[in-house]
Amino acid sequence: MLTLALQSAVPPFATDMYTPAFPQVTADLATSASLVGLTLTTFFLGMALGQLLGGPLSDQRGRRMPMIVGGLICTLGAVGCALAPSIGFLVASRIVQGFGGGLAAVVARAVVVDVAKGDLLAKVMSIMMAIGGLAPMVAPVVGGVVLTFGGTWRTVFWCLVGFGLLMMITAIVLVPESLPRERRHGGGLRQFTSGLSQVLRIRLFVGYMLTAVLSGFTMMAYIANSSYVLQEQKGLRPLPFALFFASTALAQVLLSVINARIVGRFQPRTLIGFGLTISTLAVAALTVGVFALDTPLLLTCAGFLVLMAVQGLIFGNASALAADQARQVAGAASAVLGVAQAVAMAVAAPLASSGGATTAVPMIWVMIVGIVGSLFSFLVLARTRSNTA
Q1: Residue ranges per domain, the chain?
Q2: Quick one: how many helices (H) and strands (E) in the chain?
Q3: pLDDT band at 337 (very low <50, low <70, confident <90, very high)
Q4: Fewer CB within a 10 Å sphere, N or C end of the chain?
């Protein structure tokens, strides 16, 4: 599980370690802040493409080799970033780095589906979410230390080269092939696209997948806009804000661990329903606070904390139930989930932060759309006769 979680920890380390170095990159490469910001966008585009291609490919060719190749490509992309002589070269290298990271991450999720099912799958997904949740807390600290003692932004990427090598080596040493030849689906472009279309025709998969993705859409509104709300509007200083932000991530990690322990005593669907109920109440409290009470600090912080924490009950369980519906094409299912999640977060972030320091209203509307969509997906699309009996 540690090895598979490591494959999925690429985004926070490849972004959160690097963003503090933006001013250095801008000066060193004699470029603009907007072009440096583009290196984040291209990384996530590359990651989405890696997931989209890697999932169905692993259904055809097996899991182990695509995962290893993903680690290698991610490493080569990081080397290109560390040696980049220009902003154009850096942008291109970030696409390569993201592609490799996406390829490794999507196959890691498919391996989990190969080797676990039912409540065990929900437990493993929750534990991986907990481990992955630590990465955004650790990465900024590591990045700050590297920049302080390394002296240059290129040192960050040399550290990411080491991270890529660690991904590749642990995959080679610790991850066996989990998809035997008799369960593979052949090759060819038609078979490749068939896996993706097959997944999208499974109503329960789509329902649980959208439950997870749209709940993440709601959460992303907090991540993207909380600094404006708490620092610019409410006057919170940078250190207290950083501590609060870390506490919300820690709350999500702890609830993911608790979820892994209680799955079995409680059905995953029951836990999702409870999590969505609490999430809805948190969004309702934040809505009242913004529209009627001038965004009071304590109520806003409490709403943010609860909204982040309950993802530990929603995302792992909904992802596991979705994956269980498409075990025969687990790679394609993992790709659809990963790409949908990336797109949802990419859309939520600019919409939620469009009010900047002036108003939190756009953030609230993003949250409302996300939680209503998640509830609809769970109660309507993911409903079966046994659910309604």
Answers
A1: 2-187, 200-388
A2: 17, 0
A3: confident
A4: C
